[in-house]
User: What shape does this take?
Amino acid sequence: LPLPFPVSIGAGYSRINLNLGEFIRTNESGQEIGRFSAFETSEQFSVGVGLDDHAKLSSGWNFKKIVSSLSPIGTAMELGAGRAEPSAIDFGLMAQFPVFDIAAALSDSRVTITANVEPLLDFTFGYARSNMGDNVKYIEAAQTDPLPRNATIGLSVELGFVTKVNERSWKMLTFTLAREAEDLLIVRKPGGTVEYQSGLGDISFFKHVVRGELSDDDRADLRKGWQLNFGEIVYLRGGSFSESPHFGNRNYSTSGFGLHLNGIFKLIDAVSASPIESDVFAFIRDHIDIQYDHAEYTDHEILGETKFNALNLVIR
Assistant: This one.
């Protein structure tokens, strides 16, 4: 945008579909009396605003339309649908502080390791508040439930080495350490009423995020993770998820890896004796990326061996 400082705006659309499978209804004798398919979907319209002036500051919003179709309700003679259609809004803030870039702007000189390689040290802070909106009603207004409003706050540090390839930044080798705490902001009162907590809820920023500690009486969840990046080609990852034994007791380790095509093109450019002039190569390098990521849970008797795989085609 043509302003005195660099501002950018972006918008996006995404759709998530969760197929819960087919369910068989039976009577007390075990005879089948019907079948139904359950599913949940969410459509997100997203908008974000970013300021990039050495430090990077951004905020974003998701506007979500949710459909949760869980089951038919009633007898065979009067069959309804256990279906809810709430809407919700997510809001988030992020701030990234590239230490050496800020120092270079203040001193008019850059720290270098060699003529083309510079050190990297970035601190990133993020805060999000999700699922603000309507109650969830499947059948009657008297049986509504609150949306699972969450507060999430996190901090990460990335350090390593970076260079320029055809005027584009290339992270040759980096290590990232991250921590994130999350709390469900719903409080149920003895009379059955529900209230939402304000601010961070039961999250203690210094205890949970900075020190990475979680006590047995803490209601917040704690995630820890690390990532080792080799040339934006291979990513190795590990971490953990922790909950108090009084509030869920899900505690497991995580591991994973990623393979990204775009880093290979940057590597080819970096080691080539002369720049590759092919228009096709330049277009793929600048606009296309194929990413494969794998993750899994371990060290849990129920959730252990749960695996996730993702294949992304990115067009810039």
Observations:
- The first helix runs from residue 99 to 107.
